[in-house]
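re: ur question from earlier - yeah i can do the single chain one, its not a big deal. heres the input i used so u can compare w yours
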Amino acid sequence: MASAELQGKYQKLAQEYSKLRAQNQVLKKGVVDEQANSAALKEQLKMKDQSLRKLQQEMDSLTFRNLQLAKRVELLQDELALSEPRGKKNKKSGESSSQLSQEQKSVFDEDLQKKIEENERLHIQFFEADEQHKHVEAELRSRLATLEMEAAQHQAVVDGLTRKYMETIEKLQNDKAKLEVKSQTLEKDAKECRLRTEECQLQLKNLHEDLSSRLEESLSIINEKVPFNDTKYSQYNALNVPVHNRRHQLKMRDIAGQALAFVQDLVKGLLNFHTYTEQRIQIFPVDSAIDTISPLNQKFSQYLHENASYVRPLEEGMLHLFESITEDTVTVLETTVKLKTFSEHLTSYICFLRKILPYQLKSLEEECEASLCTSALRARNLELSQDMKKMTAVFEKLQTYIGLLALPSTEPDGLLRTNYSSVLTNVGAALHGFHDVMKDISKHYSQKATIEHELPTATQKLITTNDCILSSVVALTNGAGKIASFFSNNVDYFVASLSYGPKTASGFISPLSAECMLQYKKKAAAYMKALRKPLLESVPYEEALANRRVLLSSTESREGLAQQVQQSLEKISKLEQEKEHWMLEAQLAKIKLEKENQRTADKLKSTSSGQAVGVAQEGVAVVTAAGQEDASAKAVPVPVHSTSLIGILTRTSDSKAPDVESREDLIRNHYMARIVELTSQLQLADSKSVHFYAECRALSKRLALAEKSKEALAEEMKVASQNNSRLQDELTTTKRSYEDQLSMMSDHLCSMNETLSKQREEIDTLKMSSKGNSKKNKSR
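and the output i got, formated as tokens:
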């Protein structure tokens, strides 16, 4: 085989070498011909130079002759000018001489005219010959330059070819040496391969026996132990819970979150666009504040006012779809039930667009029919009407494909799995078409706005409304571009994630089976969570006894403290009662003192006026010194109307005075009863406060212990979840590694079988050839 390959390579190289030699000869002939042509052109150039020199000499001689003739003409003209005055004096005498001079003059004039014409003709011929010579010389020079360039290129090609031939010869020699070495190594490898094939045959027999024994054992176990194979039929296999792929769910939730943000931007732009369009209809072409607008625009404005009820549900439907994708679910088209609601909201919005489209077109036609509408503005309005039709068509196309994607979650046979990828690519194409349409609308509307701003009737309100509409259209264009690029970047992941489901079946065959699978998944997760619930740690017996002793001691100390508090409260109550008693005694003493002072003052008044005044002053000084802490207004008896007990007792009159002792007893009894009542209320409040304080303290301790236990449980929960995710990842990786090893072993066995079959064929051919040789030898 190696020799045949070498011969084939040598034949190809020989053919290439012969072709290159033939090309080299042709190029050499071309170079020689070009050199001969260049030599001939050089000779022609020399001849042309000689003829040019002769013509220049002739030109010089002619110019010299012309100069002579010009001088001669000047002399003749001078002579003629001198002869004219003389002829006037003697006309009669010189008539004959004048006739002769006129004849001579006419002869000279004719001769001069001929010379001038000949000189002009010679000038023209010389100029034409000079121009022709210059043109021929330029052509020859350019041709010579091109020929020299071509000769240099041909020489470079020849040098390159010779260099290439030498390199190819060296390369072929090196390849020959390498191939000889390679042939020797291949022969050694062939011998080693024969030995390996023999060993592989032995290993294959052993593996075949081992696998057959394992197969029999597994078949017997399956027949004995497995009563029902749920993976045999796709309807039953669709109910099995697939392997949970947390990364897939997190990525799908992230993608859904990005799509929700884009849809929110799109909804905001659509709301602004419809709202500002409604404001524009109220302003242009007729301002509703000045005159009534047309019934068509009134109806159009009424429909546009309802845009929020059709646009807002798009955001809500996308939000519900995002909330339905969680970490615990399985996200495929059969399980995304909320996609149907989003499709229905999109259908209602498209119905709204279809409803307002004819009114929008008629409104643009009404603007075109206005008197101030120019041809450029009319053209922009026509372009905008076409863009609005395209926008509605693009939304209808997008809704068709989204409705198809929502079919698997409601109707099992609505869309085949083989068509998922094509539908997704069409959704991406529709989004790009929507972006293109919005770019056209933005372009045409900006041109329309600039034209309308130049109109003489353009108001500031119209300019601001147009700017708002243009900003909303730009926002819609940016949002459409973002969502189109986002979908095109993730369409491959969407197509790949559609196969996420039961492995041995074609997937979830119906929405009912998908719903049942999700219920089974929740039940399995709850069961696993219940199994993983840790047991409560029990307290050792010795520790429990020690805690009981501490608890008893703490309760005893608590009871002792409570008794001490009760005793201290009783003492405080007694002291309060004594305090109130002595306060009342002090007040009664003050009252007695005041009365005694009044009595002495009255007696002194009756005896003598002067002495009474002195005694009264002394009594007043004594009263003020004794009652600085109390209000001295009670000293003067003033009739007071009071309903309290003290007011009744202290009421005075000019006619009667109550008994002092009985009044003091009543006051004392009243205040003592009041003091007892207040002390009992104070003790009750203190006891309640102590009880509440103890309860609050115990509750705070229990709350602190509960918080600590909660934190410990949260940390344990985090550790358990991390261990769970790690074990799940390890399980998936081990499964994949086992599957890869099995696939590699199967591929290795297939390759070994192929090599063995090839070797058997070679052995058979060798046997046939040996039999043929033996027959030939026998015949000989």
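Residues 610-658 have pLDDT under 50 and may be disordered. not sure if urs matches, ping me
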